[in-house]
Amino acid sequence: MALLRVSSTDGKDMPKPKTDSNTNSMQLPKGWDSFVPELANIKNAHTITKRQWGAFYGTDLDLQLRRRGIDTIVLCGISTGIGVDTTAREAYQHGYNQIFVEDAMTASMKEEHDYVCRYIFPRIGQVRTSEEVVSSLG
């Protein structure tokens, strides 16, 4: 199993291109990038830290998944239309099967979340609820 988190100690490794959108840097609380105990205590899980929107760029995620024979990933996260969407598109281009846990992700605007879940994710994977994902594991 591979676990992924976004993190930056000082923000200097985050992209800062010129954009038309105001991208104020947020003050994040201590421990914001920690896993919940149920995930943090999984034995033999490989942890990957991403510093870009997508989880594949600049990480060894693809290598680690392939070494472990993993061909399906379950995606959730803080920003449906940014980090989750970018990672999903990268995973699709790498040939991974994907399950999107719609109620375990969010966006700054409901419309953004709904659009990506309704029109993008079904084209590149399967959209499911957390209850459906958990029940499929048993």
UniProtKB/TrEMBL annotation:
GO terms for molecular function: hydrolase activity. InterPro entries: Isochorismatase-like_dom, Isochorismatase-like_hydrls, Isochorismatase-like_sf. Keywords: Hydrolase. Residues 13-132 form the Isochorismatase-like domain. Residues 1-28 are annotated as: Disordered. Transmembrane segments: none annotated. Belongs to the isochorismatase family. This is Isochorismatase family protein. It comes from Clostridium aciditolerans.
